[in-house]
Structure formats: C-alpha cells, structure tokens
Write a structure and sequence with these properties.
The chain has 301 residues and is α/β, with parallel strands linked by helices. Helices cover 31% and strands 13% of the residues. Strand 3, helix 1 and strand 4 form a beta-alpha-beta unit.
C-alpha cells in the first residue's frame, strides 16, 4: 500500500496544548497518571511507520502527550544521528516499553537500561513470551510489576483483559492497568469489551485500553464505556495517510470521552422498540383537533 502523508509544518507548543505543563489549571476533566496531569487521553506508539519523519508528523498531529518506544529499537550510541528518539517531538513525555521481554527478569533489566538512558522512571511493562499471539504473560507481568514498583518505577502494565489480574496489578502499586482490546497489531477492535467494562467498574487507577484498536470508532467505543485513555500504534502507522489518521484518532478519543461524561444511554431491548416521540395524546391535545382526520377531535368520523 502506498502511503500519502498530510504535511505537518511545525512542532507542538503550549499554544497547541495549553495543559502541556501538566497542571490542572483550567482543566475540567484531568487525566492523571501517578499525580501528573496530561491533556490528551490518546497515547501513541512509534513502531511500523514508513519513516521517522512520518512518525514525527503523525505524533504532532495526534496531539498526544505520551509516546511509547520499544527499548530494543533505541540505539543510544546514535543519539543525535537520526535514531528514533531524535524524531520524538519536543515536549512529549517518553514512555519506554519492555517489548520483547520473555520474563520478569528480562523486563526489569530492560526497564533499568531505559531509565539510565532516558532519565525517566516511567515504564510500559510488556512481557510477551508467545511469539504467535504476543499475549501478555499474567504471572510474569505481575511478578515484574512487583519488582519494578519496589525499584522505584512508575509502572504501566500491558495485560490481558482480566478483572482479577487488573486488581492484583493495582494492589502491586501500578499507576495504571492497560488491558488489551484484541491481539497486538490485529486491528480487530474491542473483542474484550465486556471484560474491559468490568475492569473500569472497579479500578482505582486509570484504565488505558491497549492493543487491537484498529479504527477511530474503536477508540471512541473504548472511551464511551469508561476507559480513561487509549494507546494506538499500528492503525495510525500503516494507514494510507498516517498524519490524517492520527488526527482522526485524536478527535475520536475526545468524542468518546465526551459521550461517556454526557451519560451514554444504556442499550434497550433487542426485541422491543421504544418510540422517540409520543404516539398518543399529543394530537388530541390540539385545540379543536385537526380537521379532516377521522377519529380525531374536530375531524371527520
């Protein structure tokens, strides 16, 4: 597929994102992770883009405050020479991830390397030993979370959509929980919707839906059911126009959050309709009725 890229001319600044100083000033609906407030509820990844410049322009277009990068992709010896980190726009919060870790020990080692290299204690915890599904290992993820929290990290764990595991991760001291919507990179949407709703209902930390979000409508759906944020990578990176798709995801995330706060109506019965306008009483209340309509006051018959 040939990509076309909407031109982006400038880096983000505080006029674009008035809450980029991470304060709650004037922010009626703050999104907070470990005490820090972020303006955008869309987190974006850096993998699969056709080029670093396309990635940079897409990040700018997304309006995201947080961008995640795989520590395995970072070549620290090439800092300032065109490495992926050189194309992350100024002002964005870097969220290193432990993608590729096979167990808790490896995840902790990667996290420590990332902290030493970037100076941040934020880490997106990923332990995915199954190369076919890239499903998160629940046992090793929980073990790694406990080790990382004890080592001073602010841990954002990618996990299966399991309400019990989400509670255990929260109890271990994780700053968020990040249940998958469907397999990483599958673009299959919220296949785990019921479980995510259960997690949202009881979580005491932000719920960030991660993996499988394939269209802006998926992001909106996740936000509508009460997720605090979404993380998107593949659906933006491989779109025909990644920059335009990044903008679409930003709008969808905002719209979904607005719908949630507005009080999204519950689904009605699958077998019974409910009229949006009254079917009785209104016409009969018209003074003198409606002439010429049988059976109505003032009408024929």
């Amino acid at each position: 597929m040939t990509q076309r890229v909407t031109e982006v001319r400038r880096e983000p600044d505080k006029s674009d994102h008035p809450e980029s100083d991470h304060s709650e000033r004037g922010h009626p609906d703050p999104f907070r992770i470990a005490g820090t407030v972020y303006a955008s509820r869309l987190l974006v990844g850096t993998g699969k883009f056709a080029s670093h410049p396309v990635m940079r322009d897409s990040l700018v277009a997304s309006g995201a405050d947080i961008v995640t990068v795989a520590l395995r992709r970072v070549d620290l010896s090439r800092a300032g020479e065109g490495d992926v980190l050189d194309f992350v726009p100024a002002g964005m919060t870097l969220l290193p991830n432990t993608s590729g870790a096979q167990d808790a020990a490896e995840a902790l080692r990667l996290a420590r390397l990332g902290r030493a290299a970037t100076g941040t204690s934020l880490v997106k915890l990923e332990v995915t030993p199954d190369p076919r599904t890239l499903a998160p290992d629940p046992i090793e993820t929980l073990r790694a979370a406990e080790l990382m929290v004890a080592d001073g990290f602010t841990v954002l764990p990618y996990c299966s959509a399991d309400p019990v595991l989400a509670r255990r991760l929260e109890e271990a001291g994780c700053a968020t929980v990040m249940p998958l919507g469907s397999w990483i990179g599958s673009n299959r949407g919220l296949r785990t919707r019921d479980a995510i709703e259960a997690i949202v209902e009881t979580a005491g930390v932000p719920v960030v839906v991660d993996a499988g979000i394939g269209a802006p409508s998926d992001a909106a759906e996740a936000m509508e059911i009460g997720a605090d944020a979404v993380l998107v990578n593949t659906a933006i990176a491989i779109a025909a126009d990644p920059v335009a798709m990044a903008r679409a995801f930003a709008l969808a995330t905002t719209a979904g959050r607005m719908a949630h706060l507005a009080g999204r109506p519950r689904a009605g019965s699958a077998t019974v309709a409910e009229a949006s306008s009254p079917l009785t009483g209104f016409l009969g209340a018209v003074p003198g009725g409606l002439p010429g309509l049988p059976g109505l006051p003032g009408g024929a018959g």
